[in-house]
Amino acid sequence: MTNHQPRDPSARPPLVPLATLIGRELRGEKSERPSLRYGHAGLAKRGEDLFLIKPDCLRIPGNNSTAFSVFAIFDGHNGVSAAVFTKEHLLDHVMSAIPQGIGRDEWLQELPRALVAGFVKTDIDFQRKGEASGTTVTFVVIDGWTVTVASVGDSRCILDSQGGVVSLLTVDHRLEENVEERERVTASGGEVGRLNLCGGQEVGPLRCWPGGLCLSRSIGDTDVGEFIVPIPHVKQVKLSSAGGRLIIASDGIWDALSSEMAAKACRGLPAELAAKLVVKEALRTSGLKDDTTCLVVDIVPSDHSVSPPSPKKHQNKLRSLFLSLRSQNSAKHPNKLSSVGSVEELFEEGSAMLEERLGTNFPSKANSSPFRCAICQTDQAPNEGLSATTGSFFSSSPKSWEGPYLCTECRKKKDAMEGKRSSRSTAATAPR
Ligand SMILES: [Zn+2]
């Protein structure tokens, strides 16, 4: 399937009501909202890569000024059902964690937290089905010039901004390459090691045991330890009005090409052709070893007909290196505001601790009941769950939970992800 805009050059643009136009003019929005042009390409080997292109989402139904777009890749393993389930439900779960009646700035601020809640709820719901498959998720929300990327696993999203600066908006949750994740998995009760052949010879990448997965985060994977968590790394950036290009792809691309190589392979070409060229370049380098999927999204000023990032050689190499090093090392510093090149970094957080991700001031809006679970959004009687105000009902917990209200089920999930499940007496929650 291939998508690009405009889909039909002969189609007329939809009529915009006069009041909307005047409103936009008054708010100075007319020139602010970019256009998106996008394309997709891929080749299947096992048929476990899925993608989502949803350019016409509305935050508030019927209100076109609340439009945003979603692009995502789901690289499934051990079957396709986790990828299918996540593609169908994740966006709904994220949106249900967004407080109602908030403005655009607040929505963008709430989004990182809602993404965490939506990922965890999707994982809990899928695991209830009792199926064994798992999936990576790279989930990109574009609202105006603001790009928010939430990811688990190793399907990367890179940004090629104007001037040729290539930066990584995701981190790779691979045990082989991520020492922090290895330490977290080990501390939560997992073992990390290579596959052991009968002669004692160790082969392949580092994996976690039980389960033998090379990823440290995913959705699904019911048969693997709970320390393989669905809590996403989230990064939010604001592009300058010059725009930029996103390349979102599964590891079939990234095992063959570096971020720089992928960006360079398609610079100056329209998005649809660009996606095809990135796939072609990966195949030329490595052959078809795995499912290979690539989405290219150009975020361009709306008065430009075609404006993919233009090639500029011998420029910004140092800045590019600086930015990519920074994005690898800065996962622990949320809410910092900085500007590198033409891209303003609004938010970045990668912690696997729910307490750090959901914050203590949740829910921030009065429309939520105080006993609504911050993850699954169900209301629960006050004496059943756990909240900052009532403290822990479980004396076995090493320290009391200081995060927002969680229902009993989501609290069990939180403890299991942190390796605390075995400290509880219930037989049903014994470690695997
Ligand atoms: Zn819950």
TrEMBL record:
Residues 30-299 form the PPM-type phosphatase domain. GO terms for molecular function: metal ion binding; protein serine/threonine phosphatase activity. It catalyses: O-phospho-L-threonyl-[protein] + H2O = L-threonyl-[protein] + phosphate; O-phospho-L-seryl-[protein] + H2O = L-seryl-[protein] + phosphate. Its cofactor is Mg(2+); Mn(2+). InterPro entries: PP2C, PPM-type-like_dom_sf, PPM-type_phosphatase-like_dom. Keywords: Hydrolase, Magnesium, Manganese, Metal-binding, Protein phosphatase. Residues 412-421 have a biased composition (Basic and acidic residues). Pfam families: PP2C. It comes from the Eukaryota. Residues 412-432 are annotated as: Disordered. Its EC number is 3.1.3.16. It is an enzyme of class 3 (hydrolase). Signal peptide: none annotated. Belongs to the PP2C family. This is protein-serine/threonine phosphatase. It comes from Albuca bracteata (False sea onion).
